[in-house]
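Appendix B, record 7
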Amino acid sequence: MLARFALTLLFTAILAGSVPAPADAQTTSSVTGVVQSANGAKVVHATVVLRSTGGGDTTVRTDKDGRFVFERIASGVYVVAASAVGLSPAETPVMVSGGTAVDPLSIVLVEIVHERVNVVGDAFARARAPGATHVIDRRELSKAQVATDDIHTMLRQIPGLNIQEEDGYGLRPNIGMRGTGTDRSSKITMMEDGVLIAPAPYSAPAAYYAPTPGRMESIEVRKGSSQIKSGPITTGGVLNYVSTSIPTDFRLRANVTSGGDNTRKISVNLGDTSAHVGWLVETFQLRTDGFKQVDGGGESGVNLADYLGKLRFNTTPTDTLYQELEIKAGRTTQDGNETYLGLTDSDFAANPWRRYAASQNDTFASTHAQYQIRHLFARSTWDLTTVAYRNTFTRAWYKLENVMGTGLSEVLASPAGFQQQMAVLTGGPSAEHALVVRNNNRTYFGAGVQSTMGARFTTGRLRHAIEAGVRYHEDEEDRFQQDDAFQMVGGRMVLTRAGAPGSQINQVVGASAVAAFVSDTLTAGAWTVTPGLRYETIDLRRTDYARTDPARTTQTGTINTSVNVLIPGLGVAYRLNAATLFGGVHKGFAPPGPGLAAETKAEASLNYEVGARVERPGIQGEVAGFFNDYSNLLGRDTLSTGGSGSGDLHNGGRVRVRGLEASARWLIVSRGTRSLPVRVAYTFTQTEFRNTFQSAYGPWGPVQRGFELPYVPRHQASAAVDLDAGAWRTRVDATVVGRMRTVAGAGPLSDGRTTDTTFAIGLSGEYALTAAARLYASVQNVTNHVHVVSRHPAGVRPGLPRLVMVGLRLDLGR
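Structure tokens (predicted):
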């Protein structure tokens, strides 16, 4: 009763404060402003509406300079809304006091395509979203892209994310959201420019490929009920990489960096736009010798080369019709000397950067190609965006599988019980065939076409923003693997038996899916309600061939399954001056893989969220509480989790995940060319199995009711302080991640079954040589903090040691 009474008083005060004061003939004002696009161009003939919170609209058009004016406006509270063909609408509140003109307003509209293919869109869309949203924009990314452009490092500033480091460079991200699990980011929806980008997101979602962060202009994260728009995974959230846009004028950007471990990086993009044609070419290249030391000598670094091109054709925006066609093509290659073989605890304590001799032949080689054609058709009140896409990915990870017939994780977990095996791993002599190296040779593709329509209209005092979309998608994973055997002689591995291609696994899995969604953002005064519904129908297939049949002439087995699921969601937001209160509930779903065993259930949950967001000049903040109630959690057997790599799914049953996430940014000082912005983020997460069971899934094992999930820290936080003073800019950032279990368990954390607490400090500085050139330097892990970040796939793995980089950034153009 007390809470209800307090809410009643609060809402009464809000409504009372929203009613415009009575006006007389002597207390009128003018409201003026300018409408411009995100690139600074004036928007001519835009529609601008002055909407009174007490009812009644006045409409004008902008002139040739993008200006508008409303005369003789009575005192009160209003909303100024602007819209134009091909651009996303925006609005801003304004308080009118009698007798004085309101300071000129500036309303920025962005391309409507950002509203449809991005998962967050512009600042206006973010402010009204009934769920937790975060955007790392170009300015923030430029501060992060001063070293190796590790996506894990970039995402630390966003609360609610769980990250399991592996190679120190983030080249194979392990990202989860709100306790979903991190393995190869297989429990989140990963996109680039609104298109599914994991190699095979339905049939094999483990993301051994992820977009290159160094060529992105922003990164978006969306959680809560409104994420059901994206799918197919709706439990944790969506991670969308937004690639560099075609510039509005001729522009050349370049970033050249060099530093420790013979690390070198270059990033260049060049583009231009005329009246009806725009283009962009871009490359990002990274090379490093790596920070690990292979026994007896050998490489531990990586070479990455990423190339991208865009070509756009567009009509002249008018009051009735606008069209745009964009073609995008890219290619990424990676050659890395990476391994799944870690260290024992004692060897890690002696030298955390060591790599055993038996990993000397481990290499990862991959090629990714992407092709997209996007068409936008926009009229004054509705628009349609269609994207056809195809992604192909080939990778061969040639890495140690076992020693003397024993799995690596088993040996490193109990070295005293496997002394002979340890001797061989560290370079001691062995018998023939003692070391088995598997060529995990796999080919993937994902292709489809998706259309999203948006429509805006008003019924009475209720404003609607409807989005509806449909997607047809196909993907496939082709496993054609073999095992080679080696003998250790004088610390070097000598091939003793070459396996025939396909003799280890000879299998093709695939999926086809039709997905559709519809949502309506209904706004009435300060209230916004967003009901949404998503439907997925998925056909999964698995085909096995004999390991002695490389030509695949005869199938040895086929399994076909189908899944149909309806995913509802509801979000509510209430605008309270500069704050927004929001909440929501939606169904969580993750598609099962092909070859689903009869006893395996699909993953499903009910997810709840409630929070508040503040958006005002100089300060932005967001806090959200979440509760994910799983009726069944799935774990997938992969080599990266220390398993056999079969891809089999294991039921985890009932699980509860609850937590709190908070973030804030504020400008403490802003005087002329001097500013002091501060950013902080914090996440608390608590997980709990609600049933007892036996599991063959390694990270779970035998589970008792009350056990916690692995690789989900209870506490994590990050902070950054910038100081801008004229030509100088400096930044200090810090990340703290608490110890987390590496195997499900309960009670006090025990050594040998956890990671270490991570405490990493970064330092960077820039100096503007000219208006277009900046010299910078950065230090990651300033204190050279040594810490265990993972015990999977096999053995202890370290975080990135201290890394010093210096570079030059150029930005040339009109």
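Remarks on this record: The first helix runs from residue 2 to 18. Helices lie at 2-18, 112-117, 123-128, 138-144, 151-155, 345-350, 408-413, 419-425.
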